[in-house]
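lol forgot to send this yesterday, sorry. struct tokens for the thing we talked abt
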């Protein structure tokens, strides 16, 4: 399954991102949000210190809610509570070098890695060393770098999960 989206140019933007299928039909939207005005202010002062994402399906129902866990331990290694419709899990960053960001989470006994390499326009989702989804960026400079193509290769994953976790990775790195 192939889907497309266009990210806003500014990272701090809370404008909706429309998710479209191959035919150009809207399948949902996602947006960044702030729980409080304090979070918005902290994010304005310290660049991207707090990242929360909502994902809505075609009918406008909340499908995924990703909230950052804010404690002293998570200042070094960030973690997020991810609540999909039926399930919830914790996604954490395992990045050692900023040029090679990596996220890790466990879902239904599957260990999922999200990896992006330096100067590579493709972000890959791995389960047991197998690629289950890919996110391609059309260009290296704006406005083309805001155009995304999601390719989902495994039926266990849907566009809402892949798009929201990629957007979280994009906001952070």
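and heres what i got for the seq, position by position
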């Amino acid at each position: 399954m192939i889907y497309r989206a266009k990210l806003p140019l500014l990272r701090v933007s809370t404008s909706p991102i429309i998710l479209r299928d191959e035919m150009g039909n809207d399948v949902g939207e996602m947006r960044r949000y702030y729980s409080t005005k304090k979070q918005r202010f902290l994010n304005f002062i310290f660049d991207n210190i707090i990242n929360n994402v909502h994902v809505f399906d075609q009918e406008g129902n909340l499908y995924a809610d990703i909230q950052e866990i804010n404690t002293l331990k998570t200042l070094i290694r960030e973690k997020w509570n991810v609540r999909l419709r039926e399930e919830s899990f914790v996604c954490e960053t395992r990045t050692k070098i900023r040029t090679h960001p990596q996220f890790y989470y466990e879902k239904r006994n599957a260990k999922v890695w999200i990896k992006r390499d330096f100067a590579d326009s493709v972000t890959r989702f791995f389960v047991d060393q197998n690629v289950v989804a890919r996110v391609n960026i059309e260009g290296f400079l704006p406005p083309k770098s805001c155009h995304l193509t999601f390719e989902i290769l495994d039926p266990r994953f849907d566009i809402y999960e892949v798009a929201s976790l990629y957007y979280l990775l994009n906001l952070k790195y």
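The helical segments are 37-45, 159-172. anyway ping me if u want another try
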